[in-house]
Amino acid sequence: MTQSLVGGFEPPYYTAVFTAIRPDAPEGYAETAATLHALVRDIPGFLGYESAGTPGGIGITVAYFRDLEGLTAWQHHPEHLEAKRRGRAEWYDSYRVHIGKVERTYGFDRDRD
Predict the structure, then answer these.
(1) What is the DSSP letter of 112?
(2) Strand partners, 39
(3) What are the extents of the domains in the chain?
(4) Residue-wise pLDDT tens digits, 57-78
(5) In terms of CATH architecture, what is 13-102?
């Protein structure tokens, strides 16, 4: 899970919201996730990601991209394609992907000095 929020970017930009239900700690999942998180950083237009999960196996990852070209490049990245294949075959009970265009963004940060 990420421990900080992705900063506000000047809209428009795009999100890929991945929600899934999976058993706890399936074999090979953590290693693959770490590899993918490192690889996506090299995709032109990648802005960052946030993820969270519940003890019951619901996970949510939101990836942010400057443009659809970057998001599409990630969608078709060979190692990402292999992870998606493995996810359907071994890891996930179900998942959904939602692609969105962000047109407005705002937030709040408490000063914790």
Answers:
(1) -
(2) none
(3) 13-102
(4) 899 999 999 999 999 999 999 9
(5) 2-Layer Sandwich (3.30)
